[in-house]
Amino acid sequence: MFHFVYARGAAIKKIARGVLVFTLSRRSSGMFKTFTWILSCPIWALQLFTGAKSFRDNPLIGSRALNERGLHVLRQAMAHRATAWRRRRLGRGVPAPLAAAFARDGFVVVPDFLPAEAFSQLLDDVTRYRGPARETIQGDTVTRRIALDPRVLAGMPGMRRLLDRRLLGKLTRLAGGRDCEPLYYIQTILPHAVTGDPDPQLQLHADTFHPTVKAWFTLTDVAEDSSPFIYVPGSHIITPARRAWEKRMSIEASGSENRLTGRGSFRVDEDTISAMGYPPPRSFPLPANTLIVADTGGFHARGAARDAGMRVEVWAYERGNPFCAPPVDLWRIPALGRWRVPVMWAFGDWLEESGLGRQVWRRRGTVGAFDRDVAGHAAAKVRQDMSGWPGRVSAGLVRKGLLFLKKKKQKDF
């Protein structure tokens, strides 16, 4: 429930506004806005108890008055305290040197994670695979993801062995502070693949206000000038100076010129990092067959690439409610948890078909992880058949309903 309210609050609000057209169709526009605000308040209030982070989409989270009184730093402190409590349990079974390194730095690096023979088979699995994928563009960089769902894994025995390794699961759960199967993808980073502004991921930032996990298992060597991972050691710990900076940022975030800062992923420069007492950012050029797991609530970035190149990896991600974990979570079961990515993509497609949102992960047809071709991405369109006939029918009804409500609103106001 909380995750749904967090992820799709804008869509709920859009529907609620449409419903109000009927009840207030002959009232003043001022009354309409007042009732819309009243109806939206419970949603905004519920989002305070989730991982919702956008200062622009939620006027409570983005409230200057509330953040001057400490709302943002209070949410952050509560989330970190709750995660620390869960991590004490989730750290059992993690080798002591790795657990200590993570507690100190906010990341762990494990070279030669797989035996050579197992890595060779996994690499062969990925090289041979050709099938559906999704792509998105950020600046001049294209990111391609292939969901590692059970259908794909059925033809990848080497990949299944990687994902089933206990150490991988324990490290991602420790870093994320959640006993949950993360989302797994084969990810391809293609810097300078298209014409555009610089990749926004090159700027140091924290993903959100609370601890969260990302992991990279390298399938290609990553050189210093080939988009290496960058992390500020120890920045997962909220120091007093960091807390003061977070409060200043939260007060101004809703009106920030930086779109991503306004949406809760604060951008930062190296001088500010130094002023907070953290060490300089560290770059991680790594050979293939290396695992790195990090708390991306700490400051990190994607390193710059000198030329148009390619980075291929197995990428894991998990971000749930930071304040509480459900006692029964079906996503803990790998057989179910690995279906989450196609379900999420299908739901995003349905929202776009319905006119309630935009799917940024565009479909690619038959493609491989090592393909450099990104042609057709800009022209890719979410097809109406992607959710099956129930999705087509329901999306069509919602789309027509929203169009009718829009016309009625224009007529009555």
Automatic annotation (TrEMBL):
One annotated GO molecular function: 2-oxoglutarate-dependent dioxygenase activity
Question: Which species does the entry assign this protein to?
Answer: Gluconacetobacter diazotrophicus (strain ATCC 49037 / DSM 5601 / CCUG 37298 / CIP 103539 / LMG 7603 / PAl5)
- List the protein's name: Putative deoxygenase protein
Q: Do you know which Pfam families this protein is assigned to?
A: PhyH
| InterPro entries listed in its UniProt record | Phytyl_CoA_dOase-like
The uppermost taxa in this organism's lineage are: Bacteria, Pseudomonadati, Pseudomonadota, Alphaproteobacteria, Acetobacterales
